[in-house]
Structures are given as C-alpha cells and as structure tokens.
C-alpha cells in the first residue's frame, strides 16, 4: 500500500472516486470527506448529480446552503409576497426566519423589499433538485478479520437507517483478508473495494438501499454476554428527516470537497509539497520524508519553518510563494467538478 496513514489512504480513495466513479454509470459527481450527521460521520462521500441541475446550483455561490437557508430558498415565491404567506410555518419563532432571509439577501440569492412595514421576498432562481444519489465509503486500509468485526456494528446501523443509497468499505488489504471479512462479519448489503494505487476493483457489489423509505435507528443492542437479557432498542427514522439530511450533506460536500484538508495544514511551510504519485497529488513533508497526516502538519510541528518572506513578496517561484500556489492548484482541481462556478 502506498499510503503512510489512513488519512493518505482516504485521499487516494477520494482521488480514485473523482477520476473513475461510478464504474457503470455516467453522471457528474462530487467527492467529499469526513461528512455525515451528528451520530455518524463517513470517511468518503460520493454525491451523484443531475448534470443540468448541478450547473444551476452554481448560481447560489460556492458556499453551502444550511438548512435554514434551504427552508427559505426552496419555498421562495416567483412573485413578491409577505414572507409569512410564502413560507411554511417553521415550527420555531419567525424572527429566525427573518435572519435567514436577510442572510440570503446579503448573499444575493434572494430578493427582499419592505411594503407597508411588511418584509416581502421573491426568489431569484428556483433551487434545483441536483442530488440524485449519495454513496458512503468507509476506509479501512488494513481490513483484516478483527477490523471487520469492529466495523460490523456500525455498518449494520448504516444499512438499517438507509440514509445513503449505497454503503461501501474501501481497503488496501489482500484478497484473503476481505474474503474472510465477507464470510464472517460484513453485512451482505455493503460493497467492498480493493484500492491499489490509482486503481480500484469492486470485490463485492452492494445492495441499493431505500433512502425514500422509513429507516430504523438501532439505539441499543445486547452486548451478548451470558447474563445479558436486555432487549434491543430501535427508533423510527422519518423519510422527510432523511431527505433533509441528505441535502444538507450534499450542500456541505459542494462547499468543501475533499481537498479542504489544505485549510488545516501548513502549505506555507518551506517543507510542504504536493507529491505527484500514481494515485494523484498527496501532501508530502520533505523534512520528515513522508506523507504527513493533517493532524501533524501544523504550526506546532517542531520541523515547521515558514516560507522566507522573499518567496512571498518576490513571487518566487510563482506569485505569492509555493504555499499560495498549492492552494490555487487544489482550488482549480476542485472547481473542475463544479460547473458554472467562475475560478
């Protein structure tokens, strides 16, 4: 395996997915990492999109639309109307709705005016139905039998809730490792990917889940001990809740992508570079001679050395210095998958 850490393996999976996903379908996609809900965060998210609707989404800007903004924009009328007549009852004080309306107006994605002391709204554009499918991938580079057993409970919960359309596990282990995992522990609904460098092979195809149907949240289950006579506890997951969460995840994926890791690392360090390997660009630390993790590449690193001021002010070797050049390169790559956004 090329990866020096699970973080680097995660970047390899993301870059493979952006390049080659999906194997049997042709539609634009967005790739993001470390997204999900309060209860569950997935390593990699693949959002399959409607081509025309994805381009229309760009009208609303690069930043994500949170749930409050979405409640306003999806119900904003074509013609001027008092906001309380145009929008459904939010179930919380209207003053928060007014705050969302003003935020949308500040971002120039909603029109507002005051008539007779009443705040009126009118949409600029209809919010598009741009999300078609969401695929969740759990990354386990060393996927042996013990790792499969440790992950089984969470995978079963993912399948039961049915928030994603598909659930996968990506691994860099050999065939013998995940063959044991398939036979022993991994739910049959979960697909398995073998990732090697820039290529990946689907070893086990997943079953499609049903996000539009009610789901089941496993709240608590017996630990299996001899004296454990407790019953498992479950709760109902409403399809409307799933619909809202899926859109919120997709909006965050649109804003962040998977290259946002550079925002928490230190590309302004003179030792930071992007290593062009077969899998794609990976962060590399010249001082440590390794692909560093996001947690260790920080200002507190003992090897951290800021770029000399002459690099940034003199434009060597590119305007703004190498760190700024790294950010621009990753931003250009991110924008390629978001048609309609100007660089």
TrEMBL record:
Region (Disordered): 207-231
Compositionally biased intervals (Basic and acidic residues): 218-230
InterPro entries xref list: DUF5787
Domain of life: Archaea
Name of the featured protein: Uncharacterized protein
Organism: Halapricum desulfuricans
Taxonomic placement: Archaea, Methanobacteriati, Methanobacteriota, Stenosarchaea group, Halobacteria
